[in-house]
Amino acid sequence: MERYSMLDQCSNRAKMSGMAIRTRQSQRRRQVLTRERIVETAVELLDEVGADALTVRALTGRLATGPGAIYWHIGNMDELLEAATDAVVATALATRPAQPAEAGGAAGEIRSVALGLFDAITEHPWLAAQLAVQLIRNPWGPVTLRIFESIGRPVRALGVPQGDWFTTTSTLVHYILGATAQTSHGSGDGSVPGSEADRAEFLDTASRAWQELDPDDYPFIRAIAEQMREHDDREQFRSGIDLVLTGITTLHVKGSAPGRLPRPSTA
Amino acid sequence: MERYSMLDQCSNRAKMSGMAIRTRQSQRRRQVLTRERIVETAVELLDEVGADALTVRALTGRLATGPGAIYWHIGNMDELLEAATDAVVATALATRPAQPAEAGGAAGEIRSVALGLFDAITEHPWLAAQLAVQLIRNPWGPVTLRIFESIGRPVRALGVPQGDWFTTTSTLVHYILGATAQTSHGSGDGSVPGSEADRAEFLDTASRAWQELDPDDYPFIRAIAEQMREHDDREQFRSGIDLVLTGITTLHVKGSAPGRLPRPSTA
DNA sequence: ACCTGAACACCGTTCAAGT
DNA sequence: ACCTGAACACCGTTCAAGT
Hints:
Helix content of chain A: 55-70%
Order of helices and strands of chain A: HHHHHHHHHHH
Distance between the termini of chain A: 47 Å
Number of helices of chain A: 11
Oligomer: homodimer
Largest sheet of chain A: none
């Protein structure tokens, strides 16, 4: 049982790989195979064809090797998925669009991190499912840890008392991951991004279907059918974040006017 | 592409199945095969051996048939998983422990629904992953719809103005699903429930590992290491719900004293 | 140390054939 | 209408053998 494995994301063999790249040789195809290069290629494949089509055979094809070569560097498929997810999340968090002149302070930083993740998922639809998988089968693995740290720091800066840091940050992170999961609206494996027209049509069909549900079983769903057809995922996500932030400041930040939040920058 | 399939969860063949059970015959093993019986057996298998071990071969073994029989009734594996998830969620929502004498009103109802789902996941560890999967690959499928309806009704009763019903309910549902995902702490496939001692040891190891992280990279995680070791998942979940509820009442419910919530029953 | 590639033990799904 | 069971086209992973 590899339950509770915690952070041991490296293959048993293959640790150091600071070896110099075999200098000239041929340019593209004949590079040395490294763990990094495998992860990069995995991300490429995930972006292009989706999670279901990322197979070790597809990898060996693109890298011009055999399965044994992959498994020398990588351990297994789950580890590769985790590494790919962590890599994409890391760059998404690091390269967030600089908030216009520190706007919003700590609350603005939280919004920025959250929207950074949201946008990363829009760009890499497979990411939503992988974030969920990581959260579930490795609840405190590198991916979750990274997100917690990014949200936790501004939570602290917000003035939340230390005793509430963990609960508060958890609530934010859990909301973010839940919301981004539903919003990915891909085919689940995250293959094609899905056009804007597709999405409009989808919402239209869904909304119509909702209005024809049994009024006894689904009165509420029927009542929000129209609202849901018109909603914008990203805007709704922002609202959700602000809702949770309001809860935090109201409940935990003393001296704050309840319900008052630093104005979100209209970026 | 079966994207945006929406609610068409039935196999193309096999609709009616109100046929009388072939009366006497032998008792257990020689029942007629129905979609319902397959779903029931799937839930049994999921509970006993986890999601990874639910295969059509395992099903045919327990049901004493061949794969063709399964596929006559069921369509494909994804559909079976969805049906199993929906069945468990439906009974979890229907059989919630009656809140002690209506305590808490609408807010209490929301807590009750949320905790009902939480407890269902504790009982069926595979459920966490499946809820996530449903949310991602079928964002408005029967499972999500059912949960939305259950949360939306008390949201309405809370006094939230109609224009905010959708956003408010979404925020709650997304938090619930994100939180329950991390809390499942199984092996991901949701096989063994995991003992209390296992869990304590896991938290201990994780907490220690956190304290040895790089102070430059993970200052926040290091700071909450102790707090996380002592936390109780269910209690934390309650706090998260209350945090979101506070945000809702503060922001959307006029006439409510901000930060004041109906006292949660100490059940 | 790093890589090759055949082979193994599995999957989900299909489909002609039976009743 | 419902079921059988062999067969198909895939998986991830292993491992003796090469360099």
